[in-house]
């Protein structure tokens, strides 16, 4: 039988990929870099642009095809649904655009000197 040496299995304190305040069983995650922020920004702004195009087409459709029903209750439901669909499409546009803007500003900030030191401090 062969004995296992302590060099085969380093203790959690000897492992260099763990921080002192972190549990030994949790892997260390690398911080996101500027390229990640830029690609996320471009993706989000692209989806925001697509959502804006969709919202404009929805508004155009409802402008040329207004809901018209004789029953007052049906007309009320149709107007409610139109408002809901138009509102949700513009909400998606707003959300994607602001996320893209925030990621782009984070990208700019990550290019400035001292960004890594600012991220490490609490």
Structural account:
With 122 residues, the protein is mainly alpha-helical. Helices cover 63% and strands 0% of the residues. It has helices spanning 34-64, 72-111, 115-120. Helix 1 packs antiparallel against helix 2. The longest helix is centred in the last third of the chain and has 40 residues, at 72-111. It is elongated and about 70 Å long. The two termini are 50 Å apart.
Helix content: 55-70%
Task: Name the helix and strand elements from N-terminus to C-terminus, one letter apiece.
Answer: HHH
What would you report as the Rg, rounded to the nearest angstrom? 27 Å
- Mean of residue pLDDT values: 83
Unreliable spans = none
Tally of strands: 0
The percent range for strand residues is: under 5%
What does the main sheet amount to? none
Distance between the termini: 50 Å
The general outline is elongated
Number of helices: 3
Based on the model shown, name its key terms.
single chain; 122 residues; mainly alpha; 3 helices; 63% helix; elongated
């Amino acid at each position: 039988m062969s004995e296992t040496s302590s060099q085969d299995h380093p203790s959690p304190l000897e492992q260099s990929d763990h921080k002192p305040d972190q549990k030994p069983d949790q892997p260390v995650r690398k911080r996101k870099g500027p390229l990640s922020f830029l690609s996320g920004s471009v993706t989000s702004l692209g989806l925001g642009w697509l959502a804006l195009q969709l919202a404009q087409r929805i508004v155009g459709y409802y402008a040329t095809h207004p809901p018209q029903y004789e029953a007052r209750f049906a007309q009320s439901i149709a107007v409610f649904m139109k408002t809901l669909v138009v509102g949700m499409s513009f909400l998606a546009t707003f959300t994607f655009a602001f996320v893209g803007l925030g990621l782009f500003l984070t990208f700019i900030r990550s290019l400035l000197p001292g960004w890594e030191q600012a991220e490490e401090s609490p």
